[in-house]
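In practice, a research group might receive sequence data for several interacting partners and want a quick structural hypothesis before committing to experiments. The following worked case mirrors that situation: the sequences arrive first, and a predicted assembly follows.
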Amino acid sequence: MAGAGGGGNDVQWCFSQVKGAIDDDVAEADIISTVEFNHSGELLATGDKGGRVVIFQQETENKSQPQCRSEYNVYSTFQSHEPEFDYLKSLEIEEKINKIRWLPQKNAAQFLLSTNDKTIKLWKISERDKRPEGYNLKEEDGRYRDAATITTLRVPVFRPMDLMVEASPRRVFVNGHTYHINSISVNSDNETYLSADDLRINLWHLEITDRSFNVVDIKPANMEELTEVITAAEFHPHQCNTFVYSSSKGTIRLCDMRASALCDKHSKLFEEPEDPSNRSFFSEIISSISDVKFSHNGRYMMTRDYLSVKIWDLNMENRPVETYQVHEYLRSKLCSLYENDCIFDKFECCWNGNDSVVMTGSYNNFFRMLDRSQRRDVTLEASRESCKARQVLKPRRVCAGGKRKKDEISVDSLDFNKKILHTAWHPQENIIAVATTNNLYIFQEKVN
Amino acid sequence: MSGEVQASTEEQQEMQDTVVSPEKAEEVKLKARYPHLGTRPGGSDLLRKRLQKGQQKYFDSGDYNMAKAKMKNKQLPTAAAEKTEITGDHIPTPQDLPQRKQSLVASKLAF
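A structural hypothesis for the assembly, expressed as tokens:
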């Protein structure tokens, strides 16, 4: 598994695994809402609308059989959040996991942050492979022994047992947000993290749950004057003082926490000038940024809006350095996409390990690989039809109008209920995790 | 007379727009279906809706009965009208009740 994680289009992608039920009748709780690899790529976590987290672990490679790819198998699963009820407002708080972020590993245990709309939790996932045996006062099954029958003393010893993986909540960060949390991001200082809702961003310390520091507040004094909301936020991968947040108006603000305690005033504002003659009712809606991600090297950031992916150089604020169309053929369907609410779908995006290729999802269970170095792009599909082991994925093509060629699919045949909103790329290898509504697909680079 | 001339230049502009921008053509379509779109005052409806995304109102029998008593002679407010209001003004009716939540079971991904 050499793979420096590069070359999106020299790479041929093969089916590796699919997780989840086959039946078409999808229970709402099974809808996958977030996917995230940990820092080594050994673990892959998913969160769903039912508040559950499932963690998969990559099997250690079998060196004697190089063709045999390492598979991801279930490592741990737990109920992270449960539905709650806000009695004051008579409103339900959904248990859906909005985001999962892993902490870098410091010791034998793994830690992750998971959040729903209102509450962030720090989970510890630890392994137990031995247990103490030979207690003096207790039998092996836990019953207490009659003290009168004890005549000798022995030292309990640890004996091996079947591996047990336990998840326990170590911190619960409550009451930090009035509005819905859309992002969490762990700082490179490994001590703090930020959480963002529609109007505010808070800074937390991982050890402290009873208070949080507000760093951004864009709530207007009069809510009637509200013009934009925060859509995503992320810390810089190396500079612990820097974070960015994106807005529903298509802007990104970079903030430096050294400049002031309250970062309402940005240090940099990234915005592409708009041609006013092209403005339509839809302009603002489709410019809303649904995801922002720094590159691994920290020099660039990527934003996803409804129709495109943009790469920004942190040193240039007035326009992106690269723009890629994800599904431009949807521009002539905006009216129906507005009526069925699809225009508000929030697609995520991700970088490969060496920042040469980016990936994002689309409709009809299509996802797009955009190769920055070779300026090429490909559309692939996550479907049950291409689920044979090591089957190479065939590029897909959408016909925007006019004559449809063989193998092309017309825009009107696309299934807008099959959306790929969440994807993740292994930090080092060419392994990707793609979430359809209720299934998780794992694809790997073809190895000869 | 001048009114007619004005109308035709507007039509021309629209035709031009359709040719130039599929987005504008879609906007025309939308405005035709929903003529009152974007004309309501008081901040962005879209943003307001977003801030309350997916929040179900629960049925409060106290509120409901008080509203019924107050409005003996009037009709109860219909559910469809103000789904964008935050709280207080909108008394949920039995039609608003959300579906019962499923019991907690293990994720199907874990099999």
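Before designing any experiment, note the following. Chain A touches chain B through 53 residues (CB under 8 Å). The radius of gyration of chain A is 24 Å.
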